[in-house]
Design goal:
By secondary structure, the protein is an alpha/beta fold. 33% of the residues lie in helices and 22% in strands. The protein is built from five helices and ten strands; from the N terminus they run βαββαβαββββααββ. The strands form three sheets. Strands 1-8-5-4-2-3 form a six-stranded parallel beta sheet, sandwiched between helices. Strands 6-7 form a two-stranded antiparallel sheet. Helix 2 crosses helix 3 and helix 4 packs antiparallel against helix 5.
Amino acid sequence: MIVRWGLDELASLLSELGIERPLLVASDRWTPPVPVSGVWTEVPSDRIVDAAQAAKEADGLLALGGGSAIDLAKAISAETGLPIVSVPTTYSGAEWTPSFGIRDQDKRMKGGGSGAHLAAIVYEPKLTIELPRELTVGTSLNALAHSAEALYVKGRNAEGDRQALAGAACRAWSRMGRTPKPGVTCWKARGTPGLHWPRPALA
């Protein structure tokens, strides 16, 4: 998995992957950050076959949004074999796993699966600034859980432990309205009281 930081890295990353005509999977609150072959804005959606048909001219998928958009892109990827580049705007962590859930427009679970072709992630903390507070709080708790899981997952290592602890600490400092301690860099993604993203040493 390729990970880059900053939306200005997206165009060069797509070029590196050989993706010239991505289908953008995003709700209508987002505009394409790069040229795309088409846009699918019904998010969430259980019309996977229709969405896959919309990708017939695409050579990749660009998922921009939270877990619903990324899960939908993963379902399309499993259907079409197209690679996914995710630009997450929440802290759900959906960008890291090939499995996905399928929900209809009323957010009712309709199924799920696996087999998505994950290619890359671009993190841009600035995209979280305008998120509704309830969405920020809910998905940040999910991110905190991911930090904890990283400390005992099979295959964990010292560098992963450091990043997990830094991520958990950034969120804890944010909750208390405090500034991170020296030696750990966090990006502030919202106003006060804010949410901080950890800035990894290996970006």
